[in-house]
Amino acid sequence: MADEPSLTRWSFLDFKLFYDAKFGRKRLPEPQNGQTADELDSNGTNSNVTSKENHPVRNTSDMAIYEQYRNQGTHSVHSNGVVSNGFDSRPQRSLLPAFESAEMRALGESLSRDIVRGNPDVKWESIKGLEDAKRLLKEAVVMPIKYPKYFTGLLSPWKGILLFGPPGTGKTMLAKAVATECKTTFFNISASSVVSKWRGDSEKLIKVLFDLARHHAPSTIFLDEIDAIISQRGGEGRSEHEASRRLKTELLIQMDGLTRSDELVFVLAATNLPWELDAAMLRRLEKRILVPLPEPEARKAMFEELLPQQHGEEALPYDILVERSEGYSGSDIRLLCKEAAMQPLRRLMAVLEDNQEVVPEDELPNVGPVTSDDIETALRNTRPSAHLHAHRYEKFNADYGSQILR
């Protein structure tokens, strides 16, 4: 039991080395004049205290990192931030930039959770149609990284693109394709990420977000449903809350102000209500792309992928589906195909429910194929949901949209 305080101090010292290496803080100095590592405290000063009190972990974020460190094993010996087993725990780039205060650093740690580290696994080819939107996204995000020589001066890459259109037409799918295909740090930001109940924290979160994006450049900031963040300032009757005005002003300044840098930070925004956006934000979103309802060719490709033709089965009436699905969005088409696929399953479930005997799972029969009658039933039971404001999107596209001339 006499060795317990020494072991505790060793564990905490190892954790401090792990923490400093992971987050880019300064490492412990080398021992001098015969000092051993356990004679140096976390500030690099001589420490001969052998009390039984453990060094406290200051806050919840430290606790999370401490738990992560303990899960990796506390018996590894560190030297200059390198684990004895040869694994270097230091990242190629520190997780956070050098913030001016601990408060800003805490906000940065909370926003770093919105960095998409997983692969959404959405390829450009998996999005049917929308060739204009895909081409512009490639020009704005992929090409400047692949050919930086050409994107200088007047041809500097666009810093903002707005995807607008009816709901369910593939705006978020395009953002997932950007996160999958483009070699950038992807920030998936919603209103809950940058809105705080504490006074002054919302605009600080916006500033920290762009500081993080510049630190991890090239990076992409995806603002889904941006109309919830920066609608027209003032609102009806000029009754907008002061905190909302400050947040919008900070976002406008960060996107295009004296703080704008040469780092490649690309803002991708999506909305179903583009006419509610502030005019200053529309100016900063340099390309405004209409994501329309799918064309007949795109609808046919969707039907063929979702309801593939089974070998030896009845041919499905894809032409009828395309003709009668005018005004359907991509999401509506998926629901239509799901309803058609449910029809043979419902017939099978009715048979199984009538049978009082319990059938083992491995002996359950297969679901039958989808027939033309099933598709007819699905068409009667499914209605489009995205065609209500089609004329407003067309008018907004005529007034503010970016067209591609071939």
From TrEMBL:
Q: Where is this region: Disordered?
A: 26-60
* Chief location bin: cytoplasm
Is-annotated flag, keyword Nucleotide-binding? yes
Could you tell me the Gene Ontology terms of the biological process aspect for this record? meiotic spindle organization; microtubule severing
GO molecular-function term, one example from the UniProt record: ATP binding
Cytoplasm found in the keyword field: yes
Concerning Gene3D superfamilies, the annotation shows: 1.10.8.60, P-loop containing nucleotide triphosphate hydrolases
- Location in the cell: Cytoplasm, Cytoskeleton, Spindle pole
Q: Which domain of life is it from?
A: Eukaryota
Which Pfam families does UniProt cross-reference here?
AAA, AAA_lid_3
Q: What is this protein called?
A: Katanin p60 ATPase-containing subunit A-like 2 isoform X1
This chain's source organism reads Gossypium hirsutum (Upland cotton)
